[in-house]
Amino acid sequence: MTIRRLPETLANRIAAGEVIERPASVVKELVENALDAGATRIEVLIEEGGRRRIRVTDDGHGMGAAEIPLAIERHATSKLPTDDLFDIRFFGFRGEALPSIASVSRLTITSRRREDAQASVLTVENGDIGDVMPAAHPPGTRIEAEHLFAQFPARLKFLKSERAENEAISETLRRIAASRPEVDFTVVLDGRTIRYPARGLLVDDSRARLSDVLGTDFGANAVGIAAEREGFRLTGFAGLPTYNRATAAQQFFLVNGRPVKDRLLLGALRGAYADMVPRDRHPVVALFIEADPRDVDVNVHPAKAEVRFRDPGLVRALIVSAVRDALTASGSRVATSGASLAARSFRPSSGWRGYTMAPVPSRMPGETSLRPEFDEEQSIFDLPPSADARAGEVMAPELEAAPLGAAKAQIHDTYIVAQTADGMILVDMHAAHERIVFERLKRERGRPGAQVLLVPEIVEMAADEISRLLGASDELAEYGLLLEAFGPGAVLVRETPAALGDFDIKGLVRDVADALAEWGAALPVAEKLDRLASTFACHHSIRAGRRLKPDEMNALLRQIEAEPAAAQCNHGRPTYVSLSRADIEKLFQRR
Questions:
Q1: Phi, psi at residue 582, to the nearest 5°?
Q2: Quick count: other Cβ atoms within 10 Å of Cβ 234?
Q3: Which of 77, 332, 357, 381 has fewest C-beta within 10 Å?
Q4: CB 120 within 8 A of CB 64
Q5: Where in the chain is the domain with CATH 3.30.1370.100?
Q6: For the domain with range 203-329, which CATH number is right: 3.30.230.10, 3.90.1150.200, 3.40.50.2300, 3.80.30.20?
Q7: What per-residue confidence (pLDDT) applies to 536?
Q8: Which residues fall within 8 angstroms of residue 312, CB to CB, at 6 or more apart?
Q9: 416/148 Cα distance (integer angstroms)
Q10: How far apart, in Å, are the Cα atoms of 171 and each of 286, 302, 459, 523, 553?
Q11: What does the alpha-carbon distance between residue 50 and residue 170 come to, in Å, rounded to a whole number?
């Protein structure tokens, strides 16, 4: 076969297959061009999920009549002034976007520079270029792509429903808007308007824009991030562990202002929230990484959705440590959404159900009335309470000033009710204490205080269970659990972690053997150690059903306050719920 050069239109269409995957890809490229042009106001119009029309209008620098034809030529760009591919400071730099879009749609470019008396317009019909004509338009650029893939039915059939394409466009714009809080974005999706008003460049402005994008309650449930290491700077906001979502859609990563979806960053985030968020839940974050462009390669993906770092280990360590430190510094906090959920769980009473109503003779012959069937001398205030109110007997007013207040009661031998200066707290005592013990074990890892058993404990087990335990003996010793084989069907436990105190040794050893079988041999050592600590903590923590004395309840509240990670248990569930006085008043329609 003879080698030949592909026609320009065919080469553009091949490039379009890499760059223009769906309407959202067109929106991304056009909006990024507007930002590169210095726009402060961007308007996006979408019709029929982007198939019929995509229009992006900006107030940027604009182009002159001679530049517009160049803009639709492949590899023509204004964004590599020094031809240095290692010093990329703009979104688009390959010069592929506009020619690729023009090859699969009817593209109209109208643009005007501020110094020009009039605008210029150019239309390209599926690769066929027209002439540049004069037009009326304010300074800036308007680019309109119509009938996307209309001449390419094979591409059209791979597009999803109109609603799905609109959602993809909306998601793309949300991520771009998160990166530029100083820019005003207006989006019209098939008649529905979404606005991200310009905020500014301060930290509070960024938080406000992220609340616009991620939800109004994000700002109240996120902690600020600010860290720097060896030329890499990390800023942004990390949601509290108890403020989480069912998917990772609310996780934003921006590298030098560029929204990316990178496996390294996702993995680092999982490491930062390890043992804080349930395995099937995802934290809400917006992290901004800034670095010298030479330390970041953005030229590894046609759509520039992935990046490569000069030192990936450094970036991962920076994210893990910075997020962990910020969450620790925030203290023991739970998401405010927990209070709303708790308040919605209450239902107004439909009447007193503690007694039955029966007709009894009234004073007037032939009449009846309804009245409760109990002794007239008995008042409802004489009935036994459903909660243990012993804590109230030793109530200390000064304790109410503490974050978790003063214990007032224990209900169902599982939950502690505490009163604060401006509300109440409901604590899951088992989950909270489990987290406290878990953190204590992690701090003592590798240098545990072991308690030598006066009489070693013999635990009879199956051969495969014994094999798993002996295979993990080094990890178990990290926490002070020392055991050895004892004949063909048992292990001998000589030492146990001092932090656990008195507990069911046989039960713990059997549970550890079961857990090791579930985890498998491929589990990384660090993760295995954390899971072992969680298993140990579960055995030592206060069990549901145990009745605590008032002093014990208050002591547990103080321990929760002192442990920053105690707002969620080892499995990521909240350990307590806070209701403000305003929340309580709403329940009773007092406000």
A1: -65, -40
A2: 21
A3: 381
A4: yes
A5: 387-591
A6: 3.30.230.10
A7: 73
A8: 264
A9: 61
A10: 14, 19, 56, 34, 46
A11: 11
Long-range CB pairs of 482-487 (<8 Å, 24+ gap) are: 482/450, 483/459, 483/509, 486/458
Name the pairing type of β-strands 251-255 and 285-290. parallel
Residue 153 makes CB contacts below 8 A (sequence gap 6+) with none
Q: How far apart are CA 274 and CA 572, in angstroms?
A: 9
> What is the biggest distance separating any 2 CA atoms in the chain, rounded to whole angstroms?
115
Torsion of CA 153, 158, 160, 166, to 10 degrees: -70
Q: Residue with structure tokens 């639709």?
A: 72
Q: What does pLDDT average to in each consecutive run of 10 residues of the chain (591 residues)?
A: 70 61 91 92 96 95 90 69 56 69 91 94 88 94 93 82 92 93 94 92 88 89 93 94 86 90 89 83 92 81 72 93 89 67 57 44 44 44 46 63 89 89 89 85 72 86 86 83 87 83 78 76 60 71 72 90 84 85 82 72
- Residues 391 and 408: beta-carbon distance below 8 Å: yes
Tokens of 227: 């860290």
Residues of the chain with CATH 3.30.230.10: 203-329
For 147-207, strand residue ranges (E) read 184-189, 192-196
Per the DSSP assignment, residues forming a β-bridge with 483 are: 493
Task: Tally Cβ neighbours within 10 Å of residue 246.
Answer: 9
- 72-81 long-range Cβ contacts below 8 angstroms, 24+ apart: 72/98, 72/99, 72/102, 72/107, 72/109, 72/122, 72/124, 72/129, 73/99, 74/8, 74/11, 74/12, 74/15, 74/99, 79/36
Confidence at residue 321, expressed as pLDDT on a 0 to 100 scale:
93
Written as six digits, the tokens of 308 are: 């490569």
Q: Residue 234 and residue 312: Cα distance in Å, rounded?
A: 14
* Long-range contacts from 212-218, C-beta under 8 angstroms, 24+ separation: 212/177, 213/174, 213/177, 213/178, 213/252, 213/286, 214/178, 214/250, 214/252, 214/284, 214/286, 217/243, 217/336, 217/337, 218/243, 218/284
Q: Which CATH number is associated with domain 387-591?
A: 3.30.1370.100
Per-residue DSSP letter, 283: E
pTM above 0.85, yes or no: no
Counted residue by residue, the chain has a size of: 591
DSSP structure string for 216-245: TTTGGGEEEEEEEETTEEEEEEEE-TTSEE
Q: CATH 3.30.565.10 spans which residues of the chain?
A: 8-196
